[in-house]
Design brief:
Blueprint (H helix, E strand, L loop, with lengths): L1 E7 L4 H15 L3 E6 L15 E9 L2 E2 L1 H16 L14 E8 L10 H13 L3 E9 L9 H4 L11 H16 L1
Parallel strand pairs: 1-2, 1-3, 3-5, 5-6
Antiparallel strand pairs: 3-4
Bound molecules: flavin mononucleotide.
Length: 179
Amino acid sequence: MKALNLYFSATGNTEKIAKQIEKTLREQGFEVDSFKVAKDGDTEPDILAYDLVFAGSGVYTWLPGKPMMELYAKLREKYAREGEMKPASPRRQGRKAVVYCSYGGGHTGGNEAVPAVKYMAQLFDHLGYEVMDEWYFVGEYHGKLQPMSVNGRLGNIEGRPNEADLREVSEKVVGILRV
Ligand SMILES: Cc1cc2nc3c(=O)[nH]c(=O)nc-3n(C[C@H](O)[C@H](O)[C@H](O)COP(=O)(O)O)c2cc1C
């Protein structure tokens, strides 16, 4: 089983989670390729080369970050052109994905992270992967929006994702692998 660890992280929160996913997968004996989506990135991972894919991003205005959205657009076009996105999206035997975000929820809490995660899931569903789970991790605001880490709807989220969050990441990965 070969796993892809695909993520976008503008301020480092999702990267902490992605690194924990990678570490846990390796500990569990998986071969893992990590792919950090870059701004103006010109390379694309070949999703279909992987049995298991983890895909994650920070949430920006309710959606994945712009570079992740741009990568998604490229992959969608590529797989449509290659005939891999078939009508009715037939399942690909044994192919599975997990999508996740890190989010601050400063205005409407978990609700504003839902579109980002649902969006990321659709690429895999369209390609016939079973989306096994959708994970939501809290990530503090950096930069100008830092005050939202204390006065938003989730309360004080400074320092998140913290060690406990990263332990949760590992537990969830191990749980998924049991399936
Ligand atoms: C400019 C900006 C916009 C953001 N917009 C949202 C948002 O719409 N909803 C949300 O829940 N969190 C929002 N956040 C919080 C981030 O999603 C959160 O900090 C996340 O963990 C960042 O992940 P990253 O460091 O991997 O990019 C925003 C943060 C910044 C800096």
